[in-house]
């Protein structure tokens, strides 16, 4: 069973209560605890040795990635992080310095975004290390950006550049919290997700939740220099395919009304001159995901990363 089939199976009959505003199916859960003007965001994520990082990866970078993944999901909901819990599982023979350095990496990122690390759990795990983060944040009541708000005709945007994340970006990325907060305060965002499983896969999540289709312009997709360099050679992965399917870019993928597209681009350049923003396509009421080249339009068959695939 593939990852998303398993998720659907496991979440089909989950317990819920009246405090649940949004449960499984978005980047974070939204909970209403009766706090005036605010709702709570909850997110948990894990990085596993051999899956998300290698045994010889600098543990500071592992700690950064572990917390950064959760912060990226919070950014996709236009939220503000507050505090985190950490579960650390290590093989018994792993040096203590590995754990302390992983926490150094987490703390540096947490301090940058005023996140308190307030506790957690430590345990043993044979053969490999695991770091799991549970993050709590807030969002103004009714202002959390869901995946389900895309509308036909929307302009589709993505921040930064895509592809080639294994060159190091997946360990060193900066979660787009500042960009998300600015976007949500200046424009009406219809739908948003962070690009963790690849543009092709994560856009499909938006389309499924919003019951829309989309057409992407191949020439507008921002292919990273790392993907272009990795694409050289006869056996290499084509750079465009890398941008569509590599995953772990941790950029924001979002939609706005087409009338907002040009003003958004203009104001973005003033506010974030060093961060690329690309309008890569348009949502439609025709089901499916299509890729437009200069002389043809094709159904997009590329998929993002999926566990258990």
Would you kindly provide a written description of the structure presented here, covering whatever features stand out?
- With 309 residues, this protein is α+β, with helices and mostly antiparallel strands.
- The chain has two domains: 3-140, 60s Ribosomal Protein L30, Chain: A; 155-299, Alpha-Beta Complex (Phosphoribosyl-aminoimidazole Synthetase, Chain A, domain 2), CATH 3.90.650.10.
- The chain has helices spanning 3-11, 59-76, 96-112, 169-172, 177-186, 199-210, 225-230, 239-245, 261-271; strands at residues 20-22, 29-31, 38-48, 80-90, 116-124, 130-140, 155-159, 191-194, 213-217, 252-256, 277-284, 289-293, 296-299.
- The strands form two sheets. A seven-stranded mixed sheet has the order 8-10-7-11-9-12-13, with helices on both faces.
- A hairpin with a 6-residue loop joins strand 1 and strand 2.
- Helix 2 (59-76) runs parallel beside helix 5.
- The relative contact order is 0.16.
- The model has no long low-confidence stretch (mean pLDDT 94).
CATH class of the largest domain: Alpha Beta
Q: Which band does the percent of strand residues land in? A: 25-35%
Computed CA radius of gyration, to the nearest angstrom: 19 Å
Succession of helices and strands:
HEEEHEHEEEHHEHEHHEHEEE
CATH architecture of the largest domain: Alpha-Beta Complex
Strand adjacency order, main sheet: 8-10-7-11-9-12-13
CATH fold label of the largest domain: Phosphoribosyl-aminoimidazole Synthetase, Chain A, domain 2
CATH homologous superfamily title of the largest domain: PurM-like C-terminal domain
């Amino acid at each position: 069973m593939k990852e998303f089939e398993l998720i659907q199976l496991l979440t089909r009959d989950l317990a819920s209560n009246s405090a649940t505003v949004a449960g499984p199916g978005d980047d974070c859960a939204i909970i209403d605890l009766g706090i005036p003007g605010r709702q709570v965001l909850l997110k948990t994520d894990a990085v596993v040795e051999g899956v998300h990082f290698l045994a010889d990866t600098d543990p500071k970078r592992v700690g950064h990635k572990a917390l950064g993944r959760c912060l990226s999901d919070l950014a996709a909901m236009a939220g503000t992080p507050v505090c985190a819990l950490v579960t650390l599982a290590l093989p018994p023979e792993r040096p203590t310095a590995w754990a302390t350095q992983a926490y150094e990496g987490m703390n540096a990122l947490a301090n940058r975004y005023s996140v308190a690390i307030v506790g957690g759990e430590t345990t043993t795990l044979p053969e490999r290390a695991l770091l799991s983060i549970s993050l709590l944040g807030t969002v103004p009541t009714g202002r959390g950006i869901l995946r389900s708000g895309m509308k036909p005709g929307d302009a589709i945007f993505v921040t930064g550049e895509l592809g080639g994340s294994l060159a190091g970006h997946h360990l060193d990325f900066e979660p787009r919290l500042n960009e998300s907060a600015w976007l949500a305060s200046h424009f009406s965002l219809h739908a948003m997700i962070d690009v963790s499983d690849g543009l092709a896969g994560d856009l499909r999540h938006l389309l499924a939740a919003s019951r829309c289709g989309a057409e992407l312009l191949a020439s507008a997709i921002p292919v990273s220099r790392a993907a272009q360099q990795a694409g050289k050679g006869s056996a290499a992965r084509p750079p465009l395919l890398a941008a569509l399917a590599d995953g772990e870019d941790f950029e924001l993928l979002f939609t706005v009304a087409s009338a907002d597209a040009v003003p958004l681009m203009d104001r973005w350049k003033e506010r974030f001159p060093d961060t690329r923003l690309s309008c890569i396509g348009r949502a439609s009421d025709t089901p499916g995901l299509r890729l437009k080249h200069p002389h043809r339009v094709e159904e997009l068959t590329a998929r993002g990363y999926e566990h258990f695939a």
